[in-house]
Specification:
It is built from ten helices and no strands.
């Protein structure tokens, strides 16, 4: 028998333990032999993850200010830019005189093309509605009669006619060169019926307290409206003619504008106070 064979048979077999050497890491792009699943993320995803903050797990780091994080959002930047544009447009509209009527070849633009042009639709409808509301107020007080309702309508129409004639005569005496026509005056003076309707309705619902509150607010509104509207028609002509601001004629024009505006609240009260009890 071979001695070498006997020696091998008599010697117990030694068990091989796994080596304690660390397996070198696989290079990038190669699959790890001990990994159960392959990494299917693309280079773009790895690049996106690399741009994240080190300790933030995809969220902005605590060192960045909230303002910087807000401005970094493209949607927020677009909203800020849009808001700035709206603010600039609003400032331009405020600076521009929006009360002036537009003209085309020395002729006023039709009301359907210009919101500031005098229009008879609102005054006419307001006048008719005022007569109906007056009839309602008289009916709730058991004072309604066709004669009284007709007297109310004729009284309102007579005061409107007297206003127009007085203004035309004053413009003639002051020698104001303006493009105001009779229809324009009727339109401007007819807007007070809207406030009169509101005052009477609030008086029917809440008594004299509601009547005076609503009518007072409407009186202030119509006063400001008449001042800002008529000064473009009366005082603007004086400036175009080169009349001094403190001149006698310009003072008369200013007084005329103030008188027309002040007469509107007085007539609004005179035509409605007896309808509220």
């Amino acid at each position: 028998m071979n001695p070498a064979g006997l020696a091998a048979a008599g010697t117990p077999r030694l068990r091989k333990w796994p080596s304690k050497r660390r397996t070198p890491a696989s290079p990038p792009g190669m699959a790890d032999p001990h990994q159960l699943f392959d990494d299917t993320s693309s280079a773009q995803h790895r690049g996106y993850g690399a741009q994240r903050a080190p300790g933030g797990l995809g969220y902005p780091s605590s060192s960045a200010s909230p303002q910087a994080s807000f401005m970094a959002d493209p949607v927020s930047s677009m909203a800020v830019a849009y808001g700035s544009t709206l603010a600039a447009q609003g400032k331009e509209l405020v600076d521009k005189n929006d009360w002036e009527v537009q003209y085309q070849q020395d002729t006023p633009v039709a009301p359907r093309f210009d919101v500031n042009a005098p229009d008879l639709y609102i005054p006419a409808m307001a006048f008719i509605t005022y007569i109906l509301v007056a009839g309602l107020a008289l009916g709730t007080q058991d004072r309604f009669s066709p004669d009284l309702l007709g007297l109310q309508a004729s009284s309102a129409l007579a005061w409107l006619t007297l206003e127009v004639l007085a203004i035309l005569l004053s413009l003639y005496l002051v020698t104001v060169n303006t493009d105001l026509t009779t229809i324009d005056l009727v339109a401007f003076l007819g807007y007070k019926y809207v406030g009169m309707i509101g005052g009477v309705l609030m008086g029917l619902l809440f008594g004299k307290t509601g009547y005076y509150l609503v009518l007072g607010w409407c009186c202030v509104s119509i006063f400001v409206f008449m001042i800002r509207t008529l000064r473009l028609k009366i005082l603007a002509e004086a400036a175009a003619e080169g009349v001094p601001v403190r001149g006698a004629r310009n003072q008369l024009r200013m007084y005329l504008t103030m008188a027309v505006a002040a007469a509107q609240p007085l007539l609004m009260y005179w035509l409605t106070f007896h309808l509220v009890r």
